[in-house]
Automatic annotation (TrEMBL):
It comes from Cryobacterium flavum. Gene3D superfamilies: 3.40.50.1400. The keyword Lyase applies. This is Cobalamin biosynthesis protein CbiX. InterPro entries: CbiX-like, Sirohydro_Cobaltochel/CbiX. GO terms for molecular function: lyase activity; metal ion binding. Keywords: Lyase, Metal-binding.
């Protein structure tokens, strides 16, 4: 038989125990923000990357969104994260131009949530790994003497983004031991068509290495501006294929780096 006072004391101890067992805070969510595209192939390829990142870290809340063209936009993507969670926005962009330095900074500041933005994906040696994988898969033979590669990049009016792309070109040249020039599809020079023409004047064998995340408008433009090239490789991601492991690792590392820098759990 339990006396009333004993029962109340037991309830107090039980309540204290429950309070002491409160779960630790949830780790910051990873919000992967890509540019967005009208291309169904591009949409499927990006979705596969976000899914691969989620599967690689089962305990981590991972969601995707877009800075342009598609929905959900940045605000809606952040709004979908649990209210008791901070967020790390990881731009699925190859270089840090206007979207990274301006758009994402503004849109995360305006949201009522503890949020930080990571670096863009490039430059990074793991992107070189994927570029080389694409080159070899599409028939590039590094043994051919005197050949040239033109790295096809989207381009930006931001000099920092242009510098990022040129750095990737230099890293690719160093990795393969083949001359690499960079051609841009918009905003920066030389334009891809001019870079391909220049390479053709110097070499009998020219390959265009596509430095784009996924199929879409810019990949269509790459093929249109690569007249004279012997080979045009696919983008880093393709629908129906698993996302390359180096790219998945890179997204997660950008998340961890930004989270640690911001002091988030």
């Amino acid at each position: 038989m339990t006396l009333l006072g004993e029962r109340r004391d037991t309830e107090r101890r039980s309540t204290f125990g429950r309070r002491a067992a409160i779960s630790p805070p949830l780790p910051a969510a990873l919000v992967a923000i890509s540019h967005g595209t009208n291309s169904p192939d591009g949409q499927a390829a990006i979705a596969a990357l976000v899914l691969a990142v989620s599967l690689a870290r089962p305990g981590l809340a991972v969601t995707g969104g877009f800075v342009d063209v598609q929905q959900p936009d940045v605000a809606a993507s952040l709004g979908a994260v649990r209210p008791d969670c901070a967020a790390v926005v990881v731009p699925l962009l190859l270089s840090a131009g206007y979207h990274v330095h301006v758009d994402l900074q503004r849109e995360t500041r305006e949201h009522d949530r503890v949020t930080t933005v990571s670096r863009a994906l490039g430059p990074d040696d793991r992107l070189i790994d994927v570029l080389v994988q694409r080159l070899l898969a599409d028939g590039f033979d590094r043994r051919v003497r005197g050949q040239e590669i033109v790295l096809a990049a989207a381009g930006s009016s931001d000099a920092r983004a242009v510098h990022d792309c040129r750095t990737v070109g230099a890293l690719l040249e160093q990795r393969l031991g083949v001359r690499v020039t960079v051609g841009f599809l918009s905003a920066a020079t030389p334009r891809l068509a001019c870079a391909v023409t220049g390479a053709r004047l110097r070499s009998a064998n020219v390959t265009v290495s596509t430095y784009l995340v996924a199929p879409g408008f810019f990949f269509d433009l790459t093929r249109a501006q690569s007249v004279g090239a012997d080979l045009v490789t696919a983008p880093l991601l393709l629908p129906g294929e698993s996302a390359p492991a180096p790219l998945v690792d890179l997204v997660l590392d950008r998340y961890l780096e930004a989270k640690e820098s911001a002091g988030l759990f």
